[in-house]
UniProtKB/TrEMBL annotation:
Its EC number is 3.4.11.2. The lineage of its organism: Bacteria, Pseudomonadati, Thermodesulfobacteriota, Desulfuromonadia, Desulfuromonadales. Its cofactor is Zn(2+). It catalyses: Release of an N-terminal amino acid, Xaa-|-Yaa- from a peptide, amide or arylamide. Xaa is preferably Ala, but may be most amino acids including Pro (slow action). When a terminal hydrophobic residue is followed by a prolyl residue, the two may be released as an intact Xaa-Pro dipeptide. Pfam families: DUF3458, DUF3458_C, Peptidase_M1, Peptidase_M1_N. Residues 444-549 form the Peptidase M1 alanyl aminopeptidase Ig-like fold domain. Belongs to the peptidase M1 family. Residues 554-877 form the Peptidase M1 alanyl aminopeptidase C-terminal domain. Aminopeptidase N is involved in the degradation of intracellular peptides generated by protein breakdown during normal growth as well as in response to nutrient starvation. Keywords: Aminopeptidase, Hydrolase, Metal-binding, Metalloprotease, Protease, Zinc. GO terms for molecular function: alanyl aminopeptidase activity; metallopeptidase activity; zinc ion binding. This is Aminopeptidase N.
Length: 878
């Protein structure tokens, strides 16, 4: 497989004036007729052939302006069709046949639970018909669908329904017209036996929009939350961004077999059922919150992605980074902003930073790819969103909104680049973002080091700031980034002090400042700084960087208790706990005795008993840093030592604070009806955090064990029940087995709940966890063809159970290699995602890294690798 390069971009030589599609649906033999009007663009050579992408279909006929073409008139290649002699303007009709039933890659047109659905992003449309399948070719679509009425009573496509009628032989037809120009990746078709929940939304200009959520009949009672989320998202987008919905109807369809979370097809979003279906008995608080955010995300794409789309796939972050930023702001407004921000950063620090320091590290705007599907990454999505957030920080909210307005005014209806976006931000605000653009082109996580010097006599505080960025594949040297560094100075009682920056005009005396760090080394000097002030830096995580600073443990404890920036309070707790844990990891490796510092336990107790703070924030602060976060900070990762150190702390804290945990657990006990409000969610989080620590004492402590069993059997919502089950599943005894069996017996007909059951067992601390995982793979609860099942069993084990996956004998690596090899032939996207943990081999000790590398080499030696897996494996071995 050959890479594609950003520098090779050339516009498509033809315009497509319209596209009419006709589908005759049959599970094994679907006929697709496509009629497109092409027009050669001005100044394009008349010799320039027409090139169409296409794959995995049988060409039945081809005609130009009504005249059938013969094999002499075109070349049919693996990657598509080439027509050498075409006029300047013409209509091309292509008839092809495809086999959706056999499509297990879940790309293009396929069947899920017997219903037809599509997934075209990034390059799935070429599996449906021959067409210039690239985002900068935008046209108007009409879609006619014919299918058996009994089996497929619902026939949907993008846009507005313009015709509907019955045909002979029990078939029926619908015709859809999408008035908006769109690229092929936003095309969608759904046909099946579905029920629909309806609602309506009146837009800000008074238009009535029909809202529909389509699901299988058995799920009819699980759509309320998604519908509510949709209405909230529509209203929020009008208020915050002034974006109004533009079609007469907006449809969401939930399907069980889906490679990702959801897809923003124009007017017809297709969702992984995981992000639509929820009832308190079947879904957790996090599921409810994720549904709100994903429904929002896909809806928000209507403006950022659909109306204004990407010129080419290197620009993916144009729509994804921006839309993630928008969904983050939406969730922040609907719930607790501080909690949301902490959760985002936690994921960024543990997963995106890891990606950015590994063999797949790439800029937010990559320069090349072998398979674009491998670039739907944390970097493009989450780091991309951080770039948008930094622009908002640098421009201020008003400047940023002016930028958004200019962007839309300039580019509505176009396919553009991230550079066009930055230019709009610049032009609207007058802020120079030239250096800022490096964030798009340079990979790697910048490291900021700050040295603070206090001169008591002069009352001056100097911050000596240096930045650097480690080399990444293909980028040995980096230029300095433009980094917004939000800061405050806190007085001894925690109050922010007025800031007086030497040699600066304006803004003097503010309580918070955003410093623009642009040079490799830069000094900032503050005057009138009293004794005992503490610096609060990188507030609200103002840039996606690693900050190192000479902060003492006492200062961290101070920030943890007093910082008025909630994010930084949490960050201080993580730095404190992280530092302690890393010391313990070191002691474990040296075989030294482990002791927990009393000051840590005391700080922990103070937070635990704090009744003022949002319980979600407390739960976040009291959670031990993630294993992946600790791993990321180690030169050589030792998963066993990380596990041992964390378990030691968990146990030690539980021993010393048992009564406090019990008190808080009881205080947060479930009362009243289930609600997904920040308060109620926070109570459950704090309660289950307490239970999680207490569980370190069980099953030896029978009182605690009974408490867990009690929560499992009497819990009235999935949040509480699954939290308890997760703790039981860490052990192998009669009670645990009974709990797992009961749970399965209750929920075996509900695939989403079965996924939780699988995930809980894949995450178990049991030493024979892998054996259990392999056993479960042989049961009806599992299905290798269903991505959700694969993710919850194989994915969770390999990415969420570090200590068992990294068993020193290499059994985890061998297991993953076998599964990847099995999945790759039918679903390359899933195989390529699954293999990622093996790519981190250089970070482990010699034994582990040799075994991981060997597993990759064995995969590489296979004769047939998909382009997806080939790219991951070869980059991993580079
Ligand atoms: N745009 C889709 C992702 C498509 C992934 C293709 N491999 C979902 C989203 O980000 O909204
Ligand atoms: Zn998206």
């Amino acid at each position: 497989p050959q890479p594609t390069y950003l520098k090779d971009y050339v516009p498509y030589p033809f315009e497509v004036e319209r596209l009419d599609l006709e589908f005759d649906l049959e599970p094994h033999h679907t006929r697709v007729l496509s009629r497109a009007r092409y027009k050669r663009k001005e100044h394009v050579d008349v010799e320039e052939p027409l090139r169409l992408n296409g794959a995995g279909q049988t060409l039945l006929s081809l005609s130009l302006d009504g005249t059938p073409l013969t094999a002499l008139d075109y070349r049919c290649q693996d990657s598509g069709l080439v027509l050498p002699n075409v006029p300047n303007a013409f209509e091309l009709t292509v008839v092809t046949e495809i086999d959706p039933e056999a499509n297990k890659a879940l790309e293009g047109l396929y069947l899920s639970s017997g219903n037809f659905c599509t997934q075209c992003e990034a390059q799935g449309f070429r599996r449906i018909t021959y067409f210039p399948d690239r985002p900068d070719v935008m046209t108007r679509y009409t879609t006619t669908i014919r299918a058996d009425k009994q089996r497929f009573p619902v026939l949907l496509s993008n846009g507005n329904l313009v015709e509907q009628c019955d045909l002979d032989d029990g078939r029926h037809l619908t015709r859809w017209e999408d008035p908006f120009f769109k690229p092929s990746y936003l095309f969608a078709l759904v046909a099946g036996d579905l029920v629909c929940q309806e609602d309506a939304f009146t837009t800000m200009s008074g238009r009535e929009v029909l809202l529909q959520i389509y699901v299988e009949a058995r799920n009819a009672d699980k759509c309320d939350h998604a519908m509510l989320s949709l209405k909230k998202a529509m209203a929020w987008d009008e208020q915050r961004f002034g974006f109004e919905y533009d079609l007469d109807r907006f449809m969401i369809v939930a399907v069980d077999d889906f490679n990702m979370g959801a897809m923003e097809n124009k007017g017809l979003n297709v969702f992984n059922s995981k992000y639509v279906l929820a009832r308190p008995e079947t879904a957790t608080d996090d599921d409810f919150l994720n549904i709100e955010s994903v429904v929002g995300h896909e809806y928000f794409h209507n403006w950022t992605g659909n109306r204004i789309t990407c010129r080419d796939w290197f620009q993916l972050s144009l729509k994804e980074g921006l839309t993630v930023f928008r969904d983050q702001e939406f969730s922040a407004d609907m719930n607790s902003a501080a909690v949301k921000r902490i959760e985002e950063v936690r994921i960024l620090q543990s997963h995106q930073f890891a990606e950015d320091s590994g063999p797949m590290a790439h800029p937010v705007r990559p320069e090349s790819y072998v398979e674009i599907n491998n670039f739907y990454t944390m970097t493009v999505y989450s780091k991309g969103a951080e770039l948008i957030r930094m622009m908002q920080t640098l421009l201020g909210r008003d400047g940023f909104m002016a930028g958004i307005r200019l962007y839309v005014q300039r580019h509505d209806g176009q396919a553009v680049t991230t550079d066009d976006f930055v230019a709009a931000m610049e032009d609207a605000s007058g802020v120079d973002l030239d250096q800022f653009r490096r964030w798009y082109s340079q990979a790697g996580t910048p490291v900021i080091h700050v040295e603070q010097h206090y001169d008591g006599e002069r009352q001056q505080l100097t911050l000596d700031v240096t930045q650097s960025c480690p080399a990444t594949p293909g980028q040995p040297d980096k230029q300095p980034f433009h980094i917004p560094l939000r800061l405050a100075l806190l007085g001894p009682d925690g109050t922010p002090q007025p800031l007086h920056l030497v040699n600066e005009s304006g803004q003097q005396g503010a309580e918070e400042l955003v410093l623009s760090v642009t040079a490799a080394r830069q000094k900032f000097c503050f005057e009138q700084v009293g004794e005992g002030c503490v610096v609060s830096l990188l507030r609200d995580f103002s840039a996606p960087v690693k900050l190192t600073m000479n902060t003492s443990r006492d200062e961290l404890a101070f920030l943890m208790a007093h910082d008025n920036d909630a994010f930084n309070r949490w960050n201080a707790s993580q730095r404190l706990a992280g530092g302690l844990l890393l010391d313990l990891v070191d002691r474990v490796r040296k075989g030294q005795k482990l002791i927990l510092e009393p000051m840590f336990v005391e700080a922990f107790r103070t937070s635990l008993l704090d009744e003022q703070t949002d319980p979600s924030l407390l739960a976040l602060a009291l959670a031990l840093p993630l294993e992946s976060f600790l791993a990321e900070q180690m030169e050589e990762i030792d998963p066993q030592a990380i596990f041992t150190a964390r378990e030691f702390v968990r146990h030690e804290v539980a021993v010393q604070l048992k009564d406090d945990f019990l008190t808080v657990y009881r205080r947060c006990a479930d009362s009243g009806p289930y609600e997904v409000t920040p308060q109620a969610v926070g109570q459950r989080r704090l309660k289950n955090l307490c239970l999680g620590y207490l569980a370190a004492l069980a099953p030896q402590d029978n009182m605690i064990w009974q408490m867990i069993l009690e929560q499992f059997s009497t819990g009235r919502n999935m949040t509480d029940v699954s939290a308890a089950l997760g703790l039981l599943a860490d052990h192998d005894n009669r009670d645990s087995r009974h709990a797992l069996d009961t749970f399965y017996a209750t929920w075996k007909e509900d695939p989403l709940v079965v996924e939780k059951w699988l995930g809980i067992q894949a995450r178990s601390r049991r030493e024979d966890c892998l054996e259990q995982v392999e056993r479960l793979m042989g049961t009806p609860a599992f299905n290798l063809h269903n991505p959700n099942k694969v993710r919850s069993l194989i994915g969770v084990f390999c990415q969420g159970n570090s200590v068992r996956f990294h068993a020193a004998d290499g059994s985890g690596y061998d297991f993953l290699r076998r599964q990847v090899a099995l999945i790759d032939p039918f679903n390359p996207q899933i195989a390529a995602r699954l293999v990622a943990p093996l790519l981190r081999w250089p970070r482990y000790d010699d034994t582990r890294s040799a075994l991981m590398k060997q597993a990759l080499e064995q995969l590489q030696a296979k004769t047939t690798l998909s382009a997806d897996l080939y790219e991951m494996v070869s980059k991993g071995l580079d």
